[in-house]
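#onboarding

Welcome to the new folks! Below is a worked example of what a typical request in this channel looks like: someone posts a single protein sequence, and someone else replies with the predicted structure as tokens. Don't worry about understanding the tokens yet, we'll cover that in week two.

Example request:
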Amino acid sequence: MAVKILSVLLLLSIVIPFGVYFIGNREKRRFKSALAVNVITFFGIMLFSTVFLFSSPVMAAKEAAAADASVAGMAYLAAALVTGLCTIGTGIATGQAASAALGALSENEGIMGKALIFVALAEGIAIYGLLISFTILGRV
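Example response:
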């Protein structure tokens, strides 16, 4: 029952902002407000559902095994989020650093080594994310 209610709430958190955006004039301000409503409702419902679904006390050995499975599931979710968000950050940082490096190289070809160092530093973010996710998965 609770899963159905949370599923409906998540669906509404996606449908309502689109309704807010498509009703009325389509302008930049309306898009930003629809996006803000979507982000706030989605993550609010996700936080509520995580607390609601995983807050019941463990009463028996059968439920203890299920709790261990839920802890492992949360560890897998954490590892996936770390890896995914770090690669998104790497993409953003590499895009900005590489474009700035190309612009600087077009003016002065002697700074290629310095430019490559900054691009490599941006790519290191993904490696750090992978190390953290391996650490999380090593404790499961």
